[in-house]
Design brief:
The complex is a heterodimer of chains A (about 160) and B (about 120). By secondary structure, chain A is mostly helical. Chain A is globular and about 50 Å long. Chain A has helices at about 5-25, 30-45, 50-75, 90-100, 105-115, 120-130, 130-155. Chain B has 4 helices and no strands. Chain B has helices spanning about 5-20, 25-80, 85-90, 95-120. Classes of the chains: A mainly alpha (about 160), B mainly alpha (about 120).
Chain lengths: ~160, ~120
């Protein structure tokens, strides 16, 4: 990948990656820092997929690993509150926002990859380093928990 | 994903699209330069290691040759001792030869380890 290709790839994926890292970590600044590091490591890896989406999946995997390293270093793998959204929001969105913040980071990670990024179970398994069979169960539990939280908010 | 997931997918994608991030136009170029600099540095380190490899190999060969020469000298010295002399200190000629063989590498290793510890 040469510099112009990288710039185009960055522009196409940066917001997606930062949003993913932010929605999982609950920390905007951390998301920005980890995103930069993820792009740096992506370049250093020399990975070059045949399609842009393939590169994006690899980038997201690096981002996920960086989050894992961060949690290991900081021993911070607990439910964290997410700051108020930067953009204008509807009532629904605020409910989801609060409910997401109450989930554990790995649950948020799994839900985000599945529903925001449209990953298949095997792709989630690859990105998170878990067995594909476990993804089905973990995702089901995370989704059930999110729905319970959403129902609680609506009451 | 199945049909009942559709509202959830729509909700998550809405959040994803509404998120606003500050745009830093020169950030990709900075990341590119940082990665390129690290790559060039790695290449230079590899080149230096390649250049130093014959020297390191030569040093290793010289060390082995010196050790072998030292061993030969020690063995020869042990061989000149009369059996009675060795017997008086409780050694057979075979034991004395084995001790002589082990002594030199042991000293060399001890010296190497001392230098390594001192370097840290």
């Amino acid at each position: 990948m040469d510099e112009p290709e990288f710039e185009a790839f960055y522009r196409a994926t940066a917001d997606r990656l930062r949003t993913y890292l932010y929605r999982v970590s609950g920390d905007r600044r951390l998301a920005e820092d980890l995103a930069q590091e993820a792009y740096y490591r992506f370049l250093r890896s020399g990975f070059s997929g045949s399609r842009e989406e393939e590169n994006a999946r690899y980038l997201f995997k690096i981002g996920g690993n960086l989050l894992k390293d961060h949690w290991t270093d900081e021993k911070k793998i607990t439910a964290v509150s997410i700051d108020e959204p930067a953009a204008g929001s509807s009532e629904d969105r605020l409910d989801v926002h609060t409910a997401l913040g109450a989930l554990k980071p790995p649950e948020r990670q799994m839900l985000w990859l599945a529903y925001a990024e449209g990953y298949s179970h095997s792709e989630i398994a690859g990105a998170l380093g878990v067995k594909p069979a476990s993804v089905r169960v973990l995702l089901f539990r995370a989704k059930a928990r999110l729905l319970r939280l959403l129902q609680g908010d609506q009451r | 994903m199945n049909e009942e997931d559709d509202p959830l997918t729509a909700l998550f994608r809405e959040i994803r699209h509404q998120e606003v991030w500050p745009q830093t136009p020169d950030l990709p170029a900075q990341i590119w330069r940082r990665a390129r600099t690290a790559e060039l540095l790695d290449q230079e380190i590899r080149r230096r290691r390649e250049r130093q490899r014959p020297l390191a190999l030569g040093q290793r060969a010289a060390t082995v040759a010196a050790l072998l020469a030292g061993e030969a000298l020690l063995l020869e010295a042990v061989a000149t001792f009369p059996d009675q002399t060795l017997g008086s200190v409780g050694l057979t000629s075979t034991t004395a030869a084995l001790l002589a063989l082990v002594a030199l590498p042991a000293f060399a290793l001890a010296g190497y380890l001392r230098r390594e510890v001192a370097a840290r």
